[in-house]
Amino acid sequence: MQVRLSAVWTDPGGTVWGPGDTVDVDAVTLAELEEQGMVEQPAGQSAGSTETTTTTTKPKETDPSKIGPGPSSPPADDTDK
Question: Measured between alpha carbons, how far is residue 63 from residues 13, 70, 72 in Å?
């Protein structure tokens, strides 16, 4: 997960990152950085916020003539015999 730092941080590999740098961290490291107040928060969002940003779009219309078995479907049963 990409996060933007708000303070100087040294990662476990010894690399020093400055404020404003974007780093890729795992969930545990992110939690530790947030606990220390070292992660910039998006505008209008607090550190403890659980809000998510979602974009809603209208579902695509399905063309009925294109509905059928997919390429990984098993062969049709031959029940006419």
Answer: 52, 15, 20
Query: pLDDT digit string (tens) for 59-70?
Result: 667 677 766 676
Phi and psi, residue 22, nearest 5°: -105, 125
Contacts of 7 (CB under 8 A, 6+ apart): 19, 36, 37, 38
pTM summary value: 0.49
Residue carrying the six token digits 């294109």? 66
Number of H helices, E strands in the chain: 1, 4
